[in-house]
Structures are given as structure tokens and as C-alpha cells.
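Hello Y.,

Per our agreement to keep a running log of every chain we model this quarter, I'm adding this entry. I've kept the format consistent with earlier entries: sequence first, then predicted structure.
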Amino acid sequence: MVVEDDPDIAKMLSIYFSGQQYEVHIAPRGSEALAMTRKQLPHLIILDIMLPDMNGYDVCRELRTTTRTSHIPIIFLTQKDERSDKIAGLELGADDYITKPFDIEELKLRVQNAIAAANRQAHIDSKSGLPTGRLIEDHLRSLMHTDRPWSYMDVKINQFDPFTEVYGFVAGDEVLRFMALLMGEVVDQAGTPDDFMGHPGRDNFVAISHTPDPDTFKQRLTDRFNEEVKQHYSFIDRERGYILVPDTVTGERQEALMTLSIGAVSTATHRFSDIREITELAAEDRRRGLTGEDSGPQIETSW
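Predicted structure for the entry above:
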């Protein structure tokens, strides 16, 4: 995401980084940037300090203090060259700083390095753009020491593997991106600003919410997924309600369309002794309504 009110610079950066195979989103105002990150998490933000509605420092501070966006790398882009300005930005949690006029090749390298470093440190899934194992573990550990109520939700996409068998891995990646976007929308509608989303692996996702009504959160996420995921199927498959998967024994077999199942545990009803207990109880709750369904990949614990 490029947060820049100068249309010439914004256009130049959009054209250049699009040519480098990045998907570029432009936000001319700080408030628009914050609104856009609530809908879709960027892998990196290039942030101008001088904006028409709020300065880049305030945008950075908001991003860093919001759980869902705290891990996103930020590169400040500014005309200022004062040492104090650079220090102020870095103290707020910016990852890098480049001054106008800038060398576009240098900025490209800084972008590449910041994204690579973030992926190494925070373990961000490249398809969904959501945090994976270690960052999920760290967030759970931090919540274990708080008194504020929260719910942990184990979310699984059922019938994901048969879908990829028929439609391919590229279509499967689109479903994962759709799932991440949908979770963000439901967090905005039924969650809180401090809610957390993660992607432990493949067809498994995680939501950690402080909402006092987790049942509404779960129901809204499930209903929307079960209806909106149909757009990833052909018209014929949508109409008949199943897909035909090649089978070496029978020639082909029927498989149901993808649905969502969610298991949840809450500090309102449980006292947890460790992270493993949380994830296992949530997975068990999810499996209760799924006869024969395996647990899927869980967070890899390392203690």
C-alpha cells in the first residue's frame, strides 16, 4: 500500500511496483489507509509523513497499536531530512525511512528487504497475508496474562482438498485469500479492534476475539462463507451442489461443496494452563459436529 497525497508520486510508484509484480493499492489520505487495512492487510506500507488529514506519525501509531496491523512493515517516505524526524518515526515502530527525492531502485530493495524480514520474523502466510504459527503462539501467550475476556476459534474449510483436485492450486489460493478477506470483514462487523486473525496452515484459520457475543461472530462467519464461497465454483457445480472428482477406482466420485466449521473456547467458561490446551479444546469442539473429520494442521508448539 502506498499512502501518498501527491498524485504524480503515487502514480509513479504504482506503475513501477506493479511492473515488479506487486499488487499496489493507493491511499491519498491517512484515514483512507486505515480503512483499507481493515478490509485487506497489505504486506508492506509506504507511508508519506505529510498527509492532508493526519500526519504519517499518527497513521503509524494507529497501525502499531492495533493488533491486526501491528506486524505490517512500514517505510516512511518524506521530504524531511531532519535526524529528529527520522528518530521520531523509528520510535513509533517504522521499519525504514527514505527521503524525497529518492532512488527508485533503492526503494525497491528496501521494500524487498522489509517484506523478507517480516516474513522471517513474523511468519506471514504468503497466500492469505495472515500471521502463522509463531505469531499466533506469541499472541496467545500475551493473552494468557490478561484479565480481559476472549474467545479462541478454530476455523476449518471443509472439502478444500477435493476442490483443489478439480479446480487446481491457483483456485485454491484464491479461496484462501477470500477467506482472509472475509474474516477481516466479519471482525469489523461483529468483533473488536483488538481481535486477531491467523492462518496456521492450509485449510485451517484462527480467530481470537474479545467480542462478548462469540456465537454471533461464529454464525456470521459460517453463513457468509457457506454462501459466498459458491462464487469459486462453476455454474454447473453450484446448481447441482457437488463436484465430480477423478477417482482411480470408480472413475469419479461426488464431493460436497466447501463449507466452514468452527470450534471455540472462551475464558468466560474455561481456565487455561497452556497454549496446547486452548488449541486442542477448540479443535475438539469443532470436530464434535463433523463425523469422521480429522483435526487438520494445528499450531506447531515448541516447548
